[in-house]
Design a protein that fits this description.
206 residues, 8 helices, mainly alpha
């Protein structure tokens, strides 16, 4: 597989994972609601899909990453709490806990060898651009500062997202919240990709 093919494969895999983790549970929730299933059960069933897919990827890929274990633990805890309490709004609100902890984790990567923005975007780039970013991270203090600032910004964005999800979960009609939460997530992901692309274009033009 060439470098270009590998990059395309990585992007395709990312898009498929995003679709499976967001669009499929969302569609399942509304299909169940249209069939007359109550909100709590519809949320439990649709919310179990990302959990099942995550476990499946762990088994088939035979590779355990810290981010995967982090996500798995939050999904398990959120689902367990929702099952014990029987509160549908608490099941919806669990997504705010996930994004909130993701924000803290993102900010925490500032202490790691590579901050979140750099690690997350390298696999989405063409090989020459990825190499250029890696060289800049090693040799350019200005680039390193920019990556850290972007990572801090996105960590704060995740925290704001968590707050917004929590407010939506307890103030809006429950059937509307899953759709709005998914749209909010997609908007954030598109935003981080576009910011990275724009910065990459300016960086390569220097």
């Amino acid at each position: 597989m060439t470098a270009v093919e590998a990059t395309r494969h990585s992007r395709t895999a990312t898009l498929i994972t995003l679709f499976a983790d967001t669009a499929v549970p969302l569609a399942m929730f509304y299909v169940l609601r249209a069939a007359g299933v109550d909100q709590w059960l519809a949320l439990v069933v649709s919310g179990a899909i990302p959990l099942v897919l995550l476990v499946y990827r762990l088994v088939t890929e035979r590779r355990v990453e810290t981010r995967t274990l982090f996500t798995l633990s939050i999904l398990l805890c959120g689902t367990a709490v929702g099952l014990v309490t029987g509160d549908p709004r608490l099941l919806v609100a669990r997504e705010s806990y996930l994004t909130g902890l993701a924000g803290l984790w993102t900010i925490g990567t500032l202490l790691a060898a590579r901050p979140f923005v750099l690690s997350a975007t390298l696999s989405l780039m063409p090989e020459p651009t990825a190499r250029s970013w890696q060289d800049s991270w090693r040799d350019d203090p200005t680039f390193r500062r920019a990556m850290r600032l972007l990572t801090l910004a996105w960590g704060c964005a995740f925290l704001l997202d968590a707050g917004a999800r929590l407010v939506m979960a307890y103030t809006l009609p429950l059937d509307l919240v899953p759709l709005l939460s998914t749209l909010l997530l997609v908007a954030m992901l598109v935003g981080v990709v576009q910011v990275a692309k724009r910065y990459a274009g300016r960086h390569d033009a220097r």
